[in-house]
Automatic annotation (TrEMBL), chains A, B:
Cited PANTHER family: PEPTIDE N-GLYCANASE PNGASE -RELATED, SECRETED PROTEIN
Cofactor(s) it depends on: Ca(2+)
Species name: Flavobacterium weaverense
GO biological process: carbohydrate metabolic process; glycoprotein catabolic process
Name by which UniProt lists this protein: Putative alpha-1,2-mannosidase
Matching NCBIfam families: aman2_put (TIGR01180)
GO-annotated molecular function: carbohydrate binding; peptide-N4-(N-acetyl-beta-glucosaminyl)asparagine amidase activity
Length: 760, 760
């Protein structure tokens, strides 16, 4: 009976799929899992709380307090070149350059119980298993792999808050499903703060795990349900320093004892299985309580039909992908839809089905009329990801802005988030780019909340004098180099952020605020050293710092970049930047230099987060600060160079291979860059309603807007060589200024590019 | 204006007090704070959540994992002989033999900031202060002391959930109020699991502290409010291993930084003060959240009038004490009312003003129609404390039983509590004496809940085979000595507990349950060795263990006692015990021996929890197992010996001096023994509605029952020498069987003792 229902469900879904294009087929989550991409191949739902994915190693973040650089490649828990899988854990970042998560690692095994993970070179010594990519499938919302050591087939899917596992076992009386509550990504000795578990009955386990990691005070609650009862279970507490465990003489706490608590716990659940018997697990998360985790599970998966869940999740993905329907080569479709997939992974839902979530104040809140989100990697995502959301995820983006406002309301610092992570701000990276996201969302009409209160929050944040030298920046117009090693990039970033506040103030007729912040928007000029033609650190006495190397990424006043890339960071006023730098001709040559220079080997030795492949000339695409730079030719007399460069970047930096991302995907920013550029335009300065025009890679794109209208991009005479734009019309009228306004897109219409292999 | 209001409040209270007797004057919390009593002198409300009291040292529970025996005397955080006070913390146990708590230690200081507690021999090296008992006052609900090092007067009072401090400062620009979030009683290296603090504004601080101690998973939330704004504040995080603190370069987290988290935090708040300026603090606790702590504070103390709070709390105490009004010598009144005070400290309220509490499952629950309690030291308190509640705290006792039932409902083990401590069971001591408390409460008519469900919970607990050898006990009728070193006391205690279940089953007409448990109630016989006349460990093969020493408290099969004391532990069937031991004559001689023997020095060397003063002959009053024994003469032909002994015990074991308690008060059990015995009767077997009659110490006692009736005990011809009871009448009728039934008391009436210096 169940089989028939599954088949019917399948057929119905095929019919439904047919009404939208099957775009899920172009999503290859394996792209970017080798080397620098730092994405994971496992199963997740669009913007979902759960990211159920295989972890291929257990390298700690630090040993005896000392940072271990080998951990870096495991930001997503998975590296394509690894030969073993340790287990499947339920939370992962996508594409970050630092990490956390990897909570609740589950691993099916057969044979003698081994309560340690083993090592990569000796997998049989522990519960991990060898595997081969030949027996691995990764799709949007679905992952499958054969675990070779014990001949178990593992399949994973996920709804928003629940991960679902399906394990096909051989015949055995010795199956053990491991639940490792010690495991984690970027783990270190004292990272596990506390773990609490209740074995409620022989199919239900609940509890929570609390960590001190990148989220300083981070607790995740869970409910784990098995499709059939376990015959027994046990645990081991690996913490030698835990004095109080409950009186151990009274009962054996290691076997079949249902009240468990400690810092370092591993559990196992025992089963008998027939040949090819499938044992399934539903694993729900909650930020708030075990009760809510159970409720999430009951609401999202009230049955045991794995295929049904997989189909539903893939249909959800397909619906999201159909927001932009393109015609392009197969490889380009793979790159495009994989990018859309990566762009719709975070920010992540951080709220239970009943609306409750954990606030920044560590108290339980109820979200009234919005979905609460976290995982705001704002230094990356303000640039193109949130602007993309203002086209095809306007409702979600409105909720994301609302989440930021709630964070502000709960903050004793009275600041918007810098980097929001599970009821914490980890304050990572620089700037206060939430103001850019908020301004862009309001100016582009996405935000449904109180815009004036939002502006107040932006202003309070930008006036927080005690935060990262903002006081100095306000008083002097720049930050003295003696104060911090990122004085210049801070000033440039604050300057742009302040400009977005001014735009928002202008829209809301708050003239005083506008006047205050439009002045601050010019402070970038204070770090420009005309004598060398670069942005340069300035000392407290007003002189520029003597030692200066425009190529070096260390000690030059810039975060994760060098002066060559950062000197172009005045996205809100390229015209003034060009003037300041000496005019269009000089500026054009500078850009040319950037894209064609040869970098010395020393550059690569000292720089993280990118590879040689992430660089074109000296232009670093693998990290964010230069993402707008290729479009700056549009402000010179040689806009055709923008067209050539962006097509070049798309070709070089995005490939449909495991190693296909030249740098960390950074929670979707790299992907969002690609999506815009493929369609032929890019938001150089979010907060402005203008997009700068580049060179589309697609043959055709239809943006199916949430307001029901469609914006179509038609590309005539498209080919690999035809990178130059001969002409553009918008709804029949000629477009000559290399830009298009947001209002034109959202009212629907048609933009026609005619391409050529020669530039104008 | 405030002063006038205070005076008027004062006058009104005097008038109100006048309508009840002023009994608070007889309460001396200092009694028992020297050596063994383990009580604290600070301020608390009847059954209150807060116990705001001075801590006089900081000895850790363990160092490098090794137990430190010096910690034992600091179970209550205070020892009378100490010369310094470290600070005032908000939670303490009263009279326990193991410990925890001491959360949120506050200390006012002046001068150079010192963020360490200093040492007892060098108080000036840290924030602690010297003090003298000459400048110390301890009353019910009020504590005062002069801190000599900085010349600060400290006063404390408390409502149920809020501690209030009033500090009178000298003139200074350098006042610092320390908040030590690392401090605790029975502390050890990794006990502090996590601490989180928000400085909400310049008068309000909230947060929580989470420990792994005697309560394995224990979190306390707080809200701290100052009567005037602090001018600045700071913190220091003493955890060298905490890697993630939030990005430190961005702001100075040590001064005026309002978002704080870590394992080892000390904070300070800075003030300027005028000469004799009073700075006050309201410090509220909650088991659930910071929001609830604030609400508790607003509900319980919505103003800043310290005197008003003190008066209200003392009036609450006085109302409680007036439940039994006695006429006796001044010293005896002091002993009696101090005992009543100690008897009404725990169990403690564990619920917010909105009814929410943290359950055993670590989830938030709402108490529907009852007050939730914790701190159930059941091995001690089932004997006389809860029986006392069935006379003068029936509503509270009903709620306590309800709390136990909720604990059972939330338990994955499906057991009633053994030792309930702040949303944990620490499973301390032995037996499952909650069943005795529940049976007694139902049989005596206190419990308002579902009695059959309560019986079900008792039965499930007593059938928990895997808990501390209950399975063996069920199967064999005794526990094999090879299984545990407390095999005999377990059997004796289970046997009595089972008898109480049988009584409850009989009352509820559950015949099958009655039959099952009345059989088990006889299992004590299996450990009786007629060849030696003592209870003795029995091996798995059915033979008694060869090595046997009836005086030794180690390895003889008894918890915290020896065979000499435990062999009398068949409180539910003294008649059968006497038969089994060979008849009344032999039994009487045995009791005589117990009370007159000389103990060897080795006994004292190997035994904790009592002193020589706690012992009469070989009878150990300082610990609980023998508390009923002096009454057993009533089952012999020489009941007058009961009368002599109980008068002797009262005289020797209870004195109105700091060293006045011969053993740990054990959450009120020692005190309850005294209260009953002073009035002339004692509940030898809770679960039975009978009280065994002894020899009253009072001249007169009026029990003002909650049902509005009064039971009066009149004692004629009373004196120190007149310890023997010549005759007793109850409502005019003669009482000849040395017992009185509960029903006689609660319907009101008059019992008249006529005393004599000669026995019958």
């Amino acid at each position: 009976m169940k089989r028939i229902v599954s088949i019917i469900t399948c057929l119905i879904s095929i019919v439904v799929f047919a009404q939208k294009k099957n775009l899920v087929q172009y999503v290859k989550p394996i792209i970017g899992t080798q080397r620098m991409g730092h994405v994971y191949p496992g199963a997740t739902s669009p913007f979902g709380m759960v990211q159920l994915s295989p972890d291929t190693d257990t390298i700690p973040y630090a040993v005896k307090g000392k940072y271990n650089p080998d951990v870096y490649k495991y930001c997503a828990g998975y590296q394509y070149d690894d030969k073993t899988i340790v287990g499947f854990s339920h939370t992962h970042f996508s594409g970050t350059g630092h990490s956390d998560l990897g909570d609740f690692q589950v691993m099916p095994t057969v044979g003698k119980l081994q309560l340690n993970p083993g090592t990569a070179d000796k997998p049989l010594s522990g519960f991990r298993s060898s595997f081969s990519h030949k027996n691995e499938v990764a799709e949007a919302g679905y992952y499958k792999v054969k675990l070779d050591d014990d001949n178990i087939l593992a399949e994973l899917t996920a709804t928003t808050r629940v991960g679902m596992h399906q394990y096909t076992f051989p015949k055995t009386n010795d199956a053990h499903i491991i639940l490792d509550l010690m495991a984690g990504i970027y783990n270190y000795e004292d990272k596990n703060v506390w773990t609490f578990v209740r074995v409620v009955n022989d199919t239900l386990v609940t509890g929570y795990k609390q960590n001190n990691g990148w989220g300083r005070t981070r607790t995740v609650y869970f409910a784990m349900s098995f499709s059939k009862p376990f015959k027994g279970y046990g645990q081991k507490n690996f913490d030698t320093k835990q004095i109080y465990r409950g009186f151990w003489r009274k009962f054996n706490q290691e076997q079949n004892f249902p009240e468990i608590a400690g810092k370092k716990i591993r559990m196992y659940f025992d089963f008998d299985t027939e040949e090819n018997e499938k044992v399934k697990i539903k694993f729900a998360l909650s930020p708030v309580s075990q009760k809510n985790a159970i409720e999430n599970m009951q609401n999202e998966i009230p049955h045991w039909d794995f295929e049904k869940v997989k189909l539903q999740t893939q249909e959800n993905w397909n619906n999201e992908l159909n927001k932009i329907v393109i015609d392009a080569s197969n490889d380009n479709k793979i790159n495009f839809y994989t990018a859309m997939y990566h762009a719709f992974i975070s920010p992540t839902t951080y709220m239970d089905t009943n609306g409750e979530y954990k606030g920044l104040d560590q108290e339980v809140h109820k979200a009234a009329g919005f979905t609460n989100y976290t995982t705001f990697s704002l230094w990356d995502t303000y640039r193109a990801l949130h602007p993309l959301f203002n086209l095809v995820q306007t409702n979600r983006n409105s909720d994301m802005v609302q989440s930021m406002i709630e964070h502000y309301n709960q903050s004793t610092l009275k600041m918007l988030p810098i980097w929001s992570h599970y009821a914490n701000d980890n304050w990572c990276m620089s700037g206060y780019h939430s103001v850019s996201v908020i301004a862009d969302a309001i100016i582009k009409g996405s935000y449904k909340g109180d815009a004036n209160k939002a502006l107040d929050a932006c202003v309070a944040t930008a006036r927080k004098r005690s935060y990262e030298n903002i006081g100095d920046y306000i008083d002097k117009g720049y930050i003295a180099a003696e104060k911090t090693d990122i004085s210049v990039s801070n000033t440039l970033e604050y300057s742009y952020d302040d400009w977005t506040i001014a735009q928002l103030a202008k829209k809301l007729n708050r003239q005083d605020i506008y006047n205050e912040f439009i002045k601050r928007a010019d402070h970038w000029k204070n770090n420009y050293d005309a004598s060398v033609g670069f942005m340069r650190p300035k000392l407290a006495d007003g002189t520029f710092k003597k030692e200066f190397d425009e190529l070096s990424t260390h000690g030059q006043g810039f975060i994760e970049g060098n002066s060559w890339n950062y000197s172009f960071f005045v996205p809100h006023n390229p015209t003034a930047l060009i003037d300041t730098m000496g005019g269009k001709s000089i500026f054009t040559k500078k850009l040319d230099n950037l894209f064609t220079m040869h970098l010395p080997d020393s550059f690569f030795a000292e720089t993280e987060d990118i590879t040689r492949d992430g660089i074109i000339g000296g232009y670093v695409h693998g990290n964010e600060p230069a993402h707008h730079v290729a479009y700056l030719y549009n402000w010179t007399n040689q806009p055709w160079k923008t067209q050539a460069q962006v097509r070049n970047i798309m070709k070089m930096q995005y490939k449909p291979t495991p190693d296909g991302l030249g740098g960390n995907d950074d929670c979707g920013q790299m992907s969002a860059w690609y999506i815009f550029s493929s369609m032929g335009f890019y938001p150089v300065a979010p907060g402005s309603s203008e997009y700068s025009i580049g060179s589309p890679l697609v043959n055709n794109a239809k943006i199916n807007l949430e307001n029901g209208k469609t914006f179509e991009i038609v590309v005539k005479n498209q080919s690999d060589k035809n990178v130059f734009v001969k002409s553009i019309t918008l709804n029949g009228k000629s477009v000559n200024n290399h830009s298009i306004d947001h209002s034109e897109i959202v009212k629907g219409g048609k933009m026609i590019f005619t391409m050529s292999n020669k530039h104008n």
